[in-house]
Amino acid sequence: xxxxxAERKGQFYLLRESRFLPFFCTQFLGAFNDNFYKTALLxxxxxxxxxxxxxxxxxxxxxxxxxxxxPFFLFSSLAGQLADKFExxxxxxxxxxxxxxxxxxxxxxxxxxxxxGLLLVLFMMGGQSAFFGPVKYxxxxxxxxxxxxxxxxxxxxxxxxxxxxxxxxxxxVMMQTQTPWLWISTCVCIVALAGCLTSQWIPQAExxxxxxxxxxxxxxxxxxxxxxxRSRRSVFLAIxxxxxxxxxxxxxxxxxxxxxxxxxxxxxxxxTVLLCLFSIGxxxxxxxxxxxxxxRIEIGIVPLGSLGLSVFGIDLYFASDLPVVSELRELAVFLxxxxxxxxxxxxxxxxxxxxxxxxxxxxxxxxRTPAAQRARVIAANNVFNALFMVMAAVLGILLLGLVExxxxxxxxxxxxxxxxxxxxxxxxxPEFGLRFLVWLLSHSLYxxxxxxxxxxxxxGPAVLVCNHVSYIDALILAGAIHRPVRxxxxxxxxxxxxxxxxxxxxxxxxxxxxxxxxxxxxxAFIKMGQYLEQGELVCIFxxxxxxxxxxxxxxxxxxxxxxxxxxxxxxxxxLRGLWGSFFSHHGKAxxxxxxxxxxxxxxxxxxxxxxxxxxxxxxxxxxxxLRGEIC
Length: 631
Known about the structure:
Number of domains: 2
Number of helices: 23
Radius of gyration: 27 Å
CATH architecture of the largest domain: Up-down Bundle
Largest sheet: 7 strands, mixed
Oligomer: single chain
CATH superfamily of the largest domain: MFS general substrate transporter like domains
């Protein structure tokens, strides 16, 4: 299915597809059961542990948290290897049967009122989640097209946080019944059985490296999968970004209950609303990400997400100064309190921008990791996620316990640290900042329309040729084409202030005439050849300069030299609607600024020209035909 067909079907068409719906239901039910069981156990420890053991409640809570997260350190490396070696659909079915067996053990432990049995089952559930994670995220690219990865990950993240919300709420409700253990035992078994059934319809997903030898040494194997993740810098930093999100998410989810009681002076009903808004916000942000990115992997949205996380995190601190009351507020009283709606908005916005932040990063890791290593890289991601969540707990103990910050101040510190983390990641990988500015450009000054861009191959080397209308042609094309593109441009354009940083970050290639600089001229052709040999896209403006009158100038023969040395397909492109803009040579630059906002621009492509048919004249005729009378 092409991106255009996917867009016409609507955002939720994947939930009607047999290649995605069974998997979505299976992972949703698993996430629900994890959080339902974990919450029920924590409530048991909080309210009835005295009848079961003499161990302190705080120790039991920390023990429970540690038992659930420990398997991610012990088993993630093995899980990644298994997911790369064996059929992923069969592994999922086996894991769901394991979950059903664990839930039957949980039912028995509830019946016997065995706290240690329940803690053992919690460890088993953590282990099941550790094995499921690499399969869960590595199977998505096998069943979905590249342009569907963002939507698929969006639904997975939405489903995960909705499952967290529903599982937590359901456990709280059932704990208030007269026979809570009967209801909880029945529920976990039914949900696990439902997950087993839905997994039967997951389509086949072959293992990528069937000949792999499994390394059972967790320490050595963990270092090995971390090495795979670090071999691609952009992927590794994306993993760091994902882990930082889970650091923030764990911090907010852990501290919101006490924040509501201590800072907002409100009852449990307000806690429930805050948790609901946070989880719903992440779901909304995840789905919004697919729409804002145009149904493709757009990492330019990631800086937007991190910006929103900090802005609304800081505002939450200033909004938390509510009037002091003598007794805890009920929900209705809280909603009538001045400033309460601002707090609700901040919590919701933090969730929304968190969704915008996390989804493109997952899709980026899936897309840029070779299929033969994908599950192991995702397993390394799970190790770092677990490590960062432990760090979140440690930071909470330090700042809230030793430094004695209140919860609002703690959220402020998180927002400030988020700025530092974002700055570090984007400084290391300038592509994030470049794509963000390209995304802003294509969603503010211009309304960019794409026609037949599916003629550009999803993989492999190719040369793009296009008419040259304005100084920002490269940025417009970079925003329209979902693959990274290496642009060849005049050295005078490449060296323009401000834009030079973007061009360097995007790997642009400066060129000039032989008379101006023989070295720059030859270096440009060498770099073009290197990019093509690496399987990348190279874009050339064969006119050799910006149009001065809106017409297309003759194409220079340099394109023929490139294709002669590197015979790859050439895709003709055309830009329409940029002539007369501020960035073109037209004399009337932005005569009416408001009228030029969201000005329509079209990027259109036609079928590739094979290397044996390439000539400057043929390409000139095709680009001229594409552009038509609209300049």
